[in-house]
Amino acid sequence: MATTFKKGDNVAWNSQAGETHGKVVKVHTSDLDFMGKHRTASKDEPQYEVESAKSGHRALHHGDALKKA
Hints:
The protein is mainly β. The protein has one domain. The chain has no helices and seven strands.
């Protein structure tokens, strides 16, 4: 089972540029469109919107792609 996170948690994830650090800015628990793509989410499998501390860019990840930083 993936770790769960909440808004404000400091997290790290892998990106094309290597490991990236930032924070959770929103927890999505229902399907949504993000950056032109439809993403599925539920209470059991949320999508976490994260913001890079370095670039300010946002991304969407499942909990298993994140780790506490």
